[in-house]
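About this split. The held-out portion is used to measure sequence recovery: a designer receives only the structure tokens and must propose an amino acid at every position. Recovery is the fraction of positions where the proposal matches the reference. Here is one held-out target exactly as it appears in the evaluation file.
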């Protein structure tokens, strides 16, 4: 494609790294290893259903700056345990550490991730913009064999702002020595990745794996990473 683009910025979780699959395996291991069923929690699926809802709620608060990272990390497990009448903050803290340690060792990626990144890296400068925590995102990239594809990895912790805040996009452009009009944001989150990039003057590719209803009008709308090779 004959176009002005030089820099492609990717989201990590749920765009390249299969967060749901990797998180599921991690939580299953923790549930068994920490004997949560023996504490009175009926089964893993029941625990998972509540945890996912509560975790999502806490992440929304974190993105709004209403809670701190350390609170989110432990409270998502403490609140979930408490829902099943297990009032043990110490155990929640142990599980939080387990999750941070185990989850980034999981390496399931979405189909064609490495092939697509390899081809794109031959023509463009690739970068990451992620809302994830520093201590896990860099490990995920390394363990999954993705780190070599990216020149800059920008996390929300570096700038103290979460996508869709324009500050994180402005910081990413500065770090990559890129201009907004020569850059594209590629991600699965319509609010954080797509609308956030639009507000920063960056064109976007919405990776819609799960056939979400469009809440905005992205520059491009795809359902698989392989389709990126038809655009770029």
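Reference sequence for scoring:
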């Amino acid at each position: 494609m004959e176009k002005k683009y030089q820099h492609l910025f990717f989201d990590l979780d749920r765009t390249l790294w299969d967060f749901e699959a990797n998180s599921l395996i991690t939580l299953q291991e923790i549930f068994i290893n920490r004997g949560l069923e023996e504490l009175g929690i009926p089964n893993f699926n029941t625990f998972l259903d509540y945890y996912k809802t509560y975790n999502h709620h806490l992440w929304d608060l974190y993105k709004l700056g209403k809670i701190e990272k350390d609170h989110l990390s432990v409270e998502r497990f403490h609140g979930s345990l408490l829902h099943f009448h297990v009032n043990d903050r110490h155990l929640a803290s142990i599980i939080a550490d387990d999750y941070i340690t185990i989850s980034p060792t999981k390496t399931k990626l979405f189909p064609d991730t490495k092939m697509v990144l390899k081809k794109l890296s031959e023509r463009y400068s690739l970068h990451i913009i992620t809302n994830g925590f520093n201590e896990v995102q860099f490990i995920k990239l390394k363990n999954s064999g993705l780190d070599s594809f990216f020149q800059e990895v920008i996390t929300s912790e570096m700038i103290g702002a979460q996508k869709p805040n324009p500050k994180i996009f402005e910081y990413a452009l500065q770090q990559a020595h890129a201009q907004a009009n020569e850059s594209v944001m590629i991600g699965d989150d319509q609010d954080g990745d797509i609308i956030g990039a639009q507000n920063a003057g960056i064109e976007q590719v919405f990776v819609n794996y799960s056939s979400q209803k469009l809440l905005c009008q992205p520059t491009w709308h795809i359902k698989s990473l392989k389709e990126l090779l038809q655009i770029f």
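Annotator remark: The CA atoms of residues 54 and 76 lie 6 Å apart.
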